[in-house]
Amino acid sequence: MPPGTDPIAVKHAVRAFAMETFGGRHDYVFVQHLDDKHPHVHLTVRSLGYDGKRLNPRKADLATWREHFAGELRLRGVEAEATPRRARGKVRKAERGVVRVIKERGEQPRVERLAREQMVREARAGETSERPWEKKTRDRQAAIRETYRIEAQELERSSDPSDHELAKQLQRFVAEMPAPETKRAQLRRELVESLARRGVRAHSKGKERGDADDR
Known about the structure:
two-stranded antiparallel sheet; globular; single chain; 7 helices; mainly alpha; 2 domains; about 60% helix; about 220 residues
């Protein structure tokens, strides 16, 4: 949750959500972390239920869970909406905690190292075009932004001053949305930037050697 959110309210919301969603059906345990500025809770659920069936949530289930949890937060005075990542302009999942910890130790996570090595192999093989799913993600984000733009125009035409203010807020929201960059696109960009920097350094060293020879 954002900095400043009441951590006790967050923990109680998680407890209520877990009891309602998994109580009497699955074992679960949760723990609250207050070691950074974002109060958060880790909830772990045993997949095998008391009835012998395994938990297998679909996208619709996850959306329902998010809405339920947001509702529990609002009941405790915490403003929250269960908006999907794509509606906020985010195309990548949040970084896993274990990956973040590895980075904080100054190490490179294995999953990122393998992804970078794959990008290098593709670049050497001349495979630089985007994948179909990348284009689909980019097109979907463009459609979302266009929808927001149209809604803002509708609000601007309203005779209610509060709608005009809402239109401004919506326009600011769209302007501040992150670039629709997939993880693969990010790695590709970082590879290009790294090669460009190496090229500049190599050119600079070559110039220094040439100057030395002239002298």
